[in-house]
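TICKET: design request
STATUS: open
ATTACHED STRUCTURE:
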């Protein structure tokens, strides 16, 4: 409950007795009247909201004290608004002047554009766009800090100039609507092998675990990974960009058209379990997966040089395939907080971050030893958390990631195409809208698939059709697949029908069976390869974006068992044990 709500000169008053409400006894009140401007108005009880309401139309400008007259049995008393500090309503009728525009002025269903609002003065409390002409929501909220939002258009939208009404509401409830225009154009294809975002068949691989194409980059920091021969699983295994390039024909034959690679930036070099006294003792854990960045501007030297990275991109493009790069905007790697610099030199493991490394992030992350575990402003697994609600921090983090579009551009003009976005639910919405906007400005065709743990067909966590994500990884699909392979066909069919109805090319779900963060599907079906084949067939034919976890096509699987992580197995030179490639095709 709040105080009165103003909208275009009309004031909605509401009264609720907090104590009676808590006891579910609001019905004890016989009558409530609003006293304002020398008059009394009987209020109407809203049984569903459990409160009394009255709409005062055409409220005069100025400051107006008000109160409520409450009758319970024979007792009548006057009370101030318990949800307003002063029990005074203020109203000023001011014109809202603003100018909305869309850039670029043309877009097709495989592209995005940015709606920007240039507004005079302050005091705007809400701003939203009606995007129904593009097949989108009728009230797409525009973040007031950004004053811009990314637009998308559905396949079903016809070509032509479309109007986008934009409504601004000020602190007094006055509203004004202005209109922007954007032209929806026909999608032009480069050739017969060109495909759309909603046609992506994604192959997710951990670069380090896929294939070793250049042994000279296996230990760039000279840390002696061979010394961990008793527990080698926690060290780098040697996979790199060169290894991906050498196996592109295999991936092309498999039928995938999009390769999702783990984060490419430089990671903290040390064994993060150097002080871990938990069992198994002596089992290392290095940042081979790429999610513990130490420098967002440089490539991870374990994966290769810029030349090898560009070669991979060109060879992918030559096969009419696309590259999706995993990115992290929530956190850095371990050892980069100021308090980590207090660890004595003799206690630091080889490769531990330097003071210069920590200085790079000094003003960007939450410092101290008790940051907490809040979902957005706390630390995830103790990883240093970016203060992304600070505009300066947000701008820097977004710039680091967005710059990789240009850095990835080869002499032949090829580049990366998509981002998979890590830990989405741990960053506030403003940063995601800002990130989406910046990427759209740089490359309108660039798309995002987000990882918001637990999201799926029953809950998109608010990230779809909101100017943030274009797709989400579907954490629910594997359970539908389990129902399907275990014979619960009616239940699985109903789930698929409901899932299909929610999707279009602007709001997709990526169906996966296993990942680096979850056990393999074979673990869920007791190693039954036949069930895996059936689940894979469902995955490939369901509406959405199939996301194949590397090795699943060979029957590889593993448990999500820290710190061994058997689900992060090696494909480095492995012989094919079970080939289900033809089934998946």
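STATUS: resolved
RESOLUTION: sequence designed for all positions
ATTACHED SEQUENCE:
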């Amino acid at each position: 409950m709040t105080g009165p709500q103003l909208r275009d000169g009309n004031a909605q008053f509401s009264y609720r007795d907090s104590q009676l409400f808590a006891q579910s006894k609001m019905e004890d009140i016989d009558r409530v009247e609003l006293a304002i401007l020398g008059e009394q108005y009987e209020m109407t009880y809203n049984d569903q909201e459990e409160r009394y309401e009255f709409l005062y139309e055409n409220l005069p400008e100025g400051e107006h004290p008000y109160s409520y007259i409450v009758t319970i049995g024979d007792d009548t008393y006057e009370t101030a608004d318990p949800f307003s500090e002063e029990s005074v309503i203020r109203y000023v009728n001011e014109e809202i002047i603003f100018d909305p525009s869309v850039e670029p002025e043309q877009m097709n269903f495989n592209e995005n554009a940015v709606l920007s609002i240039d507004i005079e003065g302050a005091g705007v409390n809400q701003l939203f766009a009606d995007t129904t002409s593009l097949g989108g929501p009728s009230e797409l909220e525009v973040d007031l800090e950004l004053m811009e939002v990314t637009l998308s258009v559905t396949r079903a939208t016809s070509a032509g100039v479309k109007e986008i009404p934009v409504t601004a509401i000020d602190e007094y409830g006055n509203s004004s609507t202005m209109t922007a225009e954007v032209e929806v154009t026909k999608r032009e294809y480069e050739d017969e092998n060109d495909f759309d975002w909603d046609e992506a068949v994604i192959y997710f691989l951990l670069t380090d675990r896929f294939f070793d194409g250049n042994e000279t980059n296996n230990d760039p920091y000279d840390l002696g990974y061979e010394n961990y021969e008793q527990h080698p699983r926690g060290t780098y295994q040697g996979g790199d960009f060169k290894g991906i390039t050498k196996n592109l024909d295999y991936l092309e034959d498999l039928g995938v058209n999009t390769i999702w690679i783990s984060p490419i930036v430089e990671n903290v070099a040390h064994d993060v379990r150097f002080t871990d006294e938990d069992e198994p003792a002596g089992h290392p854990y290095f940042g081979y997966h790429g999610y513990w960045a130490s420098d967002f501007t440089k490539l991870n030297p374990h994966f290769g040089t810029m030349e090898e990275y560009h070669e991979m991109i060109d060879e992918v493009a030559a096969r009419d395939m696309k590259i999706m790069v995993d990115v992290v905007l929530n956190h850095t790697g371990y050892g980069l907080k100021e308090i980590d610099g207090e660890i004595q030199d003799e206690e630091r493991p080889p490769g531990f971050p330097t003071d210069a490394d920590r200085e790079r992030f000094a003003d960007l992350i939450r410092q101290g030893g008790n940051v907490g575990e809040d979902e957005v402003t706390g630390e995830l697994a103790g990883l240093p958390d970016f203060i992304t609600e600070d505009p300066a921090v947000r701008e820097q983090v977004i710039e680091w990631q967005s710059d990789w579009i240009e850095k990835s551009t080869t002499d032949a003009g090829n580049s990366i195409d998509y981002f998979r976005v890590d830990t989405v639910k741990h960053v506030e919405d403003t940063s995601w809208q800002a990130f989406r906007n910046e990427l759209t400005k740089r490359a309108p065709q660039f798309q995002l698939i987000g990882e918001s743990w637990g999201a799926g067909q029953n809950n998109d966590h608010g990230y779809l059709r909101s100017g943030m994500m274009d797709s989400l990884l579907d954490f629910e699909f594997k359970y539908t697949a389990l129902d399907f392979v275990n014979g619960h066909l009616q239940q699985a069919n109903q789930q698929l029908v409901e899932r299909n109805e929610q999707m279009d090319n602007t709001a997709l779900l990526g169906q996966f069976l296993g990942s680096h963060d979850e056990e393999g599907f074979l673990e869920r079906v007791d190693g039954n390869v036949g069930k895996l084949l059936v689940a894979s067939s469902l995955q490939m034919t369901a509406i959405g974006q199939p996301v194949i976890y590397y090795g699943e096509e060979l029957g590889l699987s593993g448990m999500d068992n820290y710190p061994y992580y058997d689900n992060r197995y090696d494909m480095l030179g492995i012989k094919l044990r079970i080939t289900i490639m033809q089934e998946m095709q």
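CLOSING REMARK: The chain has three domains: 5-91, 98-184, 202-224+245-453+463-498+517-553+573-584. Confidence is low (pLDDT under 50) at residues 575-583.
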